[in-house]
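Ticket #4471: structure export looks truncated?
Reporter: QA, pipeline team
Priority: medium

Steps to reproduce: submit the single chain below to the structure queue and open the exported record.
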Amino acid sequence: MPVLVVAAFAVVMGVLWWRTHLSQAEARVRDALAARLARDSVATDDPVERALRRFYERRGHRPAWSDGRQPSGAALTCVDLLRGAGAEGLDADDYADSALVGEVTRTGSPGFRGLLPDADRLAGLDLALTRGFLRFARDAHDGRLPAAVLDPAWVTVRDTLDLARALRRALDGPLAAGEPPDLAPEREDYRRLRTALERYRALAGAGGWRALPPGPVLKRGAAGAGVLALRRRLAAEGDSTGRSPEFDAGLARALRGFQARHGLHESGALDSATRAALNVSAVARVRQIGLNLERERWLPAALREPHVVVNVPAFQLEVRDSGRVMLRSRVVVGEPRNPTPTFSAKLNTIVLNPTWRVPRRIVFEETVPAFRRDTSWFRRHHMRVFYTRAAKPIEVSPHGVRWDDAEEDTFAYLVAQDPGDENPLGRVKLLCPNPHDVYLHDTPAKSYFSAAVRAYSHGCVRVQQARSLAEWLLARDTLVAERANLWRGRPRPRGVRDSLDVVLDSLVTRWVALRERVPVHFLYRTAWVDSAGAVQFRDDLYGLDRRLGEALRTGKAAGFVLNPPVEWGEKHRSTPVASAAAPALRTVPPERLPR
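Actual output as written to the record:
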């Protein structure tokens, strides 16, 4: 019996000694952490460093990744998380270099457990892991570029991660259970694209695919080595199978599928544009997906439905509601010298039979030269000129205007085109107030919608299904009013929502304010995964992929411009120019004033 008592006493004393030993070891690391943080300077504009200090201050500088003797299991899991950053399109070396990985692994190995590591070294490991985690969390959730370089419209709506809180929750949750936390955005669009990245990284790691050699157009009926090379290339991405040297119907169908996924003319023939798309390497596709994942991180955690999305490089508009695509339409966007910017706004007004205020740049670059060649230009195209310096706009004769001043800031005239078949806004205009003066509208130039590349506008977006979009908005707006019981049992008033055909045929301009604004997002996606699971790629229409890649590569984000400004040709002069006096002509009737 005494032997058992002595043994029990020895065990209790051993446990107490071990706890004291661990407590002292942790205290030494804690003191080392406090000393390091007091000694190191911090950049006040660096959110990672601010979060790091806040994290340790709130836990009394206790180490997060060790017990004072060796790294914890959470530390090893964190290393795995950081080394897997490539799955998010990030560079793992930015968060945990090989030296850190080796140190954590060695210090945490079983053979090291009987030793007492240097407290300062463990403090250094703790800080390195915390910095790595916080940087990865920020980059995976918010994006690598600082918010200052983003378009202000996106900065105000994006969801910024609380880094210190994210680390605390990860330590108390998945990391404690040996599971790496998922810090990336939860939107389905992001997760689909991340899965596509995994697939294309595997393809690139396996050597990718061989480029097709130059050659003539191949189509059904062709045969030979070129057809076999095309089959192998399509099979690399799962677009085709088979080994026949004949260009048969199955190969043409597979090629049309590839062309559809790349926004090309779906001819089913191997033309030069299709050959160029096929010859983009797997490594380049990995890089392209990574850049688009970066843009996805700039968006809010959820895009509230219903909403309208315009994907500029895809020349496509979609209306989404309740998880479904309610309307899909081709669009024409700005040409590269007049790009459609990326921003978010809200549709608030539908204009039926709109007048068109001709932008000043178009006035002096296109309209004025045409007028000089043909003095009946304004009359034949139903255009009118208004003097804007009076209390009310005054219509004047185009022959009495000094058009040489059209590009000056002091130009006192407005050119507007009446509603009709020649009006470039078509019959429907959808307003979404924004600093870029960009909106959606119909167009009489329907032939542009049949082109594969549809970048012809001066910045605004022409919508093939503009009328259908207006009808959907009006129907939804009526439903909103009925749900709100705005009429309280009285007969619902009839108006433009009930007589769209009559209003459009009348050529009378009508403005219809929407009761509930619908968000519209103008995005720049050159890689995404559609609802059917197909990975879609588009050309870098405005060079924003290239510019984003350069900014991320060099780290010089301050000079990176996300949205090139949509210039309308106004030129600023240091010396004001006197405006021409208004010719004394009749006043425009109020109902005919351009809006």
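Status: closed, not a bug. The export was complete when the record was re-opened. Leaving a note from the reviewer for reference: The first strand starts at residue 307 and ends at 311.
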